[in-house]
Amino acid sequence: MHRNKELYSFLLGVAAQLTEEWYATLNKNDKAGVYSSPDPKVIKKLKQQNNEFHLRFFQVFDTEEREFFKQLGDWIEEIGQDEEHLSTPIYFILREFFRTQEQYLDYIDRFVGLHGDKYRQEEINSWYRVVVKVFSEVMERFTEANHRYANKIMKAQQATIDELSTPIISLKDNTALLPLIGDIDTTRGMSLLENTLQKCAEKNVTRLFIDLSGVHAIDSASAHQLSQLIESLHLIGIQTTLSGLRPEIAMTAVKLQLPFDKVTIKSTLAQAISTIK
Predict the structure, then answer these.
(1) How many domains does the chain have?
(2) Over the range 3-42, which residues count as b (16 or more CB within 10 Å of their CB) and which as e?
(3) 104: closest CA among 46, 66, 60?
(4) Positive or negative, the Cα torsion across 24, 28, 29, 35?
(5) H or E stretch including 212?
(6) For the STAS domain, which residue ranges apply (predicted)?
(7) Do 123 and 55 share a domain, yes or no?
(8) Segments forming the whole domain that contains residue 212
(9) Which residue in 236, 222, 223, 241 sits closest to 177, CA to CA?
């Protein structure tokens, strides 16, 4: 009942105007995000994205529902992973969806005004309802896509952090160095255990020097994980040498009665590396 080619043609004809009106009334004082960007390229792209949304949305008045949502779904996925939109707080984006919805309802009113009593109120109400219904679904789908892609980026960033926090440096003849810097908490300790074993296996390491001179603090759970790492390395045939243990870390290990019988201890990294033949 809501499909109407005359309304569809009218809205297509004002799509460019809608975009210009939308951007002209846009709050450009947001502290972050795409809407406050002064970059001409970003502004041009933003307007193109907005106009493309109009062209796809208006098809609801002309196209079969399944095809309509497919076309609109492609736009949602594209914007959901757009770098500029990912850096924009989601509540700013939802605000603009609501503003655009108001534009559509206003222009439907204008269309009705141009045609007098040509359309029954029941049909007009169906246009209002479909606009509100589709916007509700668009915002839900966009929020899901935005969350999905944001999580994907966060996981990639975390993987990079994990990679940098567990740098296995190859030395000579299947020997390698793992220099640790900064405090080791439980989360980092778990990452250290998993990544070290994996990287040592990939590099065919048979002897690993773990230097702790850059570690200022380690909690009890992480100390246990370090002990588990040494035990795990031993089980896969890797000889481990620890160096640079600070007194505080040594005291933590003794207090927790952690077994270090499967590891060689050297006071400095230089002493440890000097044992390489």
Answers:
(1) 2
(2) bbeebbebbeebbeebbeebeeebeeeeeebbbebeeeee
(3) 60
(4) positive
(5) strand 207-214
(6) 165-276
(7) yes
(8) 169-273
(9) 241
Looking up tokens 């030395």 gives 171
* Across 110-115, average pLDDT: 93
Phi, psi of 59 (to 5 degrees): -65, -15
CB atoms within 10 A of CB 234: 14
Q: CATH number for the domain including 127?
A: 1.10.490.10
Place of tokens 């679904």: 137
pLDDT in tens, 67-98: 888 888 889 988 888 888 888 888 999 999 99
Q: Which of 96, 129, 160 is the last residue of a domain?
A: 160
The token pair at 87 is 């850096």
Which CATH number goes with the domain that contains 244?
Answer: 3.30.750.24
> Does 219 lie in the same domain as 136?
no
